Amino acid sequence: MYYGIPVWMFKREPDYEQTMQTIAALGFKGVELIAWSRQELDEYYTPETASALKALAASLGLQITNFNHTPKCITSPDEDLRAARIADFKRAIDVAVNLGVQNVTMVSQYPFGEPYAGFMDLRRIAELQQWSYDHFDLNRDWEANFALYADTMRALCGYAAERGARVLVEPHPYRLINSSASMLRLIERVGCDNLGINYDPSHLFPQGDMPEWAVHMLRGRLWHTHFSDNDTLTNVHWRPGQGKINWRAVMQALRDIGYDGAINFELEDVPGAPTPATAAQGPSEAMITELLEARKYIDGVCAAIDLRVE
Questions:
Q1: For the chain, which residues make up each domain, given as ranges?
Q2: 30, 180, 219, 230: which sits with the fewest CB atoms below 10 Å from its CB?
Q3: What is the number of alpha carbons within 13 Å of residue 300 lying toward its C-beta?
């Protein structure tokens, strides 16, 4: 196992060359790259840029751990819209291959391809007196929509397999895949060996999953991680040690299943975390401190179980 950082902890939009140099200078071994839109896939992640990023990572001693892109609406009944978003993710797979990356991650989808404005962030749960959504028709064919999702994922896994890549889904609250159990259902329904999970306990924990149990339940399909802590009620992303997750149990479980990939710290709700207004300024000192403290904490946890993470 080795420590890494997603680029969006420092900078939310391309270019990422300086960010990669900063991550390497801090002593981290991994970097996770992302495309937020089809425009970024086409305009920034050209074959030439992908080749240059791959070479830069090698020169810095960095492993590109994962390529992240979430197409919206791949569960939409609108065939044209769904086809366009499927094409977007196929493009992301091609970018990953050009980067020399095996793991390609998306966030789980909303039912019927619809985002719901009334779905509040779980981090705001303590503020809410009412929680509702206004326009959602429940009287639909839910099984058919899940079957559509599975069929789409099967096709994307097939495309990825031809290129030596894997498709990872990150469960999120209020989505079709929101827990380890629903992830296992999707894996079973899709039936492809290259479908797995991006393990983020800060999404699983408030859904009722015990993070260390989830590791064992997903043995053989857990190929990438986002590490952050929370309070079990909201999906806030604090640094490990600041919430209620049993990190010793998590690290022991990862060792038990033979996980040897990246431990990527995704600390989206800590002092100094980038916002759309500040992200262009690059990494804040507070954010750097949080990341270094996160690594120090997990190092201490690992020392107690005689486990070394690079």
A1: 2-304
A2: 219
A3: 8
- Rounded to the nearest integer, the mean pLDDT of the chain is 94
User: What pLDDT digit, counting tens, does each position of 82-135 carry?
Assistant: 999 999 999 999 999 999 999 999 999 999 988 766 666 777 777 776 666 666
Q: Residue 43 CA to chain centroid, in angstroms? A: 22
Amino acid identity, position 232: T
What pTM was estimated for this model as a whole?
0.95
Flag whether pLDDT at 279 surpasses 70: no
CA-based Rg of the chain, rounded to a whole angstrom? Answer: 19
pLDDT tens digits, 153-209: 999 999 999 999 999 999 998 899 999 999 999 999 999 999 999 999 999 999 999
Q: What would be the CATH architecture of the domain defined by 2-304?
A: Alpha-Beta Barrel (3.20)
Q: Which two tokens stand for residue 223?
A: 């190929």
